[in-house]
Amino acid sequence: MSNFSPLLRTAGVSVLAAGSVFALSGCGALMSFMGAGNVMELNVGDCFVEEQMNTALASGEVSNIPLVDCAEEHDSEFFFAYDMTEAEYPGEDATLTQAEELCTGEEFTNFIGVPYSESEIYAGHLYPTQESWDQFNDREIICYATTSTSGEMVTGTLSGANR
């Protein structure tokens, strides 16, 4: 059974394909102090509520992802970003496989404190599509940890959660 958040994985694919805007991975910077972030400018350490991000993506409001200060209640946090180095887009299946491996491997363990297979925290990711690769030079895979599947909201970072 996969611990990936299925809503975002699906939304991430369609949103990136939608255009200038979802690469979780350039357009604008943070729109305000922890109000919204352009998906092309999300950063490791940004916190959010996964349902709000999925709603924004599903509604086509992909240019602004609702971010929250990590001291406020949230269920998700970006923990790792990787710039793909391939000259040509490797295809969606290969990109998805690479994202899943990156987001559940050593970087997850380093961030959470336990291996993914032993964690009660899930992983999600955003990655480039062929369209975002070609039109926006999008090369970034960005991983996030989330407690959204349990309904648990947290304050502070998920780093070192050890669970």
Helix content: 25-40%
Total number of domains: 1
N to C succession of SSEs = HEEHEEHHEHE
Mean pLDDT: 80
Q: What summary fits the major beta sheet?
A: 6 strands, antiparallel
Described by the principal axes of the CA atoms, the overall outline is globular
Q: What is the oligomer described by this structure?
A: single chain
Radius of gyration computed on alpha carbons:
14 Å
Helical element count? 5
Entry summary:
This protein has 163 residues and is α+β, with helices and mostly antiparallel strands. Helix content is 30%, strand content 17%.
Could you give the topology of this structure?
Elements: H1 6-18, E1 36-37, E2 47-48, H2 50-58, E3 65-68, E4 76-83, H3 92-104, H4 106-112, E5 122-126, H5 130-136, E6 140-146
Helix pairs in contact: 1-2
Domain Septum formation-related: 59-153
InterPro entries: Septum_form
Protein name: Septum formation-related domain-containing protein
Give an account of the 3D structure:
Residues 59-153 form the Septum formation-related domain. This is Septum formation-related domain-containing protein. InterPro entries: Septum_form. It holds the Pfam family Septum_form. The protein has 163 residues and is an alpha+beta fold. It has one domain (36-150). The chain contains 5 helices and 6 strands; from the N terminus they run αββαββααβαβ. It has a 6-stranded antiparallel beta sheet. α1 (6-18) runs parallel beside α2. It is globular.
